[in-house]
Amino acid sequence: MTDTPFLADTPFVSTEIATQPELWRQVSAGFAQYGGALPTAGQRVAAVGCGTSWFMAMAYAALREDLGQGLTDAFAGSEFPASREYDAIVIISRSGTTTEVLDLIRNTTLPTIAITATPGSPIVELADHTIMLDFADEQSVVQTRFATTTLALLRASLGQDLSQAAADAEVALTIDVDELAKLEQVTYLGTRWTIGLAHEAGLKQREAASAWTEAYPAMDYRHGPIAIAQPGRGVWIFGEPPADLLDDVSATGATIVHHADLDPMASLVVAQRVAVAKSLSLGLNPDQPRSLSRSVILGG
C-alpha cells in the first residue's frame, strides 16, 4: 500500500491538541454542569471504552480506586463481564456509534452513563444518562482532546483540581519535539492510573505514524521488554518511575523521556505532538491514518 503524501500546512489534530488546556479548565470549572451524573464515592463502577476510550477508562478506574472512591474496573467494550454486578457503568465513546459499547448497553440491566461528543448518536438514546462533550469533538480521526477532556472531567469528579494540569499542558505545547520524533522506537511506561496514559501514547504513534511502539506497567518492563532498548530508541515514563528503573534504562543507551515536573496528562500532550511530528516527517496524514475510521461499526 502506498500512502499519499500529506501536504496541508496544519493538520486538524495539531489545532485540536492545542485546545486541550482550556478544555480541561472548562470541564473542571463546570463540573456541576457536565459531570453531575457521574458515580459518587462508594459505588461499584465499571468503566468501558474501545481503543483510546478504553485507555481513558483504565486511567479513571485506577485513579478512582487509589483515591478511595470505591471499587472500579475497566474493560474493553467487547470484554465486559455480563454476570458481574456494578452500581453503574461509565461508557466512553466519542462517536456514540461504536458497535461493542452499543451492544453492551442494549444487553445490560445495569445503570449506564455515557460520555460522548456526538449529539443525536445512538448512545444518547440508549444510555440512562448522557454527558455531552460536543465542544471537545474532533475533525481528525485520531483522538486527542476528547479523550483528555473526558479524563479531566473524570478526575474532577474525583475531587482533583485540574488547574495545575492545565497550566502544565500549556508548557507541553511549547516543548520542542523534533528530536523525539526521530527516535526509531519508543516504549511507554506507567504505574497505576498512568498505565492507561502509556497505552494511549503508544497508540497515538501507531495510528498517526504507523510507528512501532509498546506500552507496559513500569515494574514489568524489566521482565523482558527492556531487551529491545538501545541507542536511537526511547523509553517514555509517565508519573514517578520505580526505584532504579532510570539507571537500568540508562545502561541500555536508550533515550529516557520523563517529564517529572509535568502532570502526566500534560506529558501525554507532548506524546501527541511527537506522534504528529513523526507522521508529518514521514509524509503521512495524521488526520486520516490508514485503515482507520472515526468509529468501528460492525455489520450485523
Short overview:
It is built from 12 helices and 9 strands. With 300 residues, the protein is α/β, with parallel strands linked by helices.
> Strand portion, in percent?
5-15%
Poorly predicted segments: none
Shape, please? Answer: globular
Termini gap = 29 Å
State the helix count. Answer: 12
Strand order of the largest sheet: 2-1-3-4-5
Mean pLDDT score: 94
For the secondary structure, the number of strands is 9
Question: Oligomer, anyone?
Answer: single chain
Give Rg in angstroms.
19 Å
Task: Find the structural class using helix and strand composition.
Answer: alpha/beta
Main beta-sheet strand count, sense and barrel state: 5 strands, parallel
Order of helices and strands: HHHEHEEHEHEHHHEHEEHEH
Fold and architecture overview:
Helices cover 39% and strands 14% of the residues. By secondary structure, the chain is of the alpha/beta class. It is globular and about 50 Å long.
Walk me through the topology.
Layout: H1 12-18, H2 20-29, H3 31-34, E1 45-49, H4 52-66, E2 72-76, E3 88-92, H5 99-107, E4 112-116, H6 122-126, E5 129-132, H7 145-157, H8 163-172, H9 178-181, E6 186-190, H10 193-209, E7 213-217, E8 234-237, H11 245-250, E9 255-257, H12 264-281
Parallel strand pairs: 1-2, 1-3, 3-4, 4-5, 6-7, 6-8, 8-9
Helix pairs in contact: 2-7, 2-8, 4-7, 4-10, 8-12, 10-12
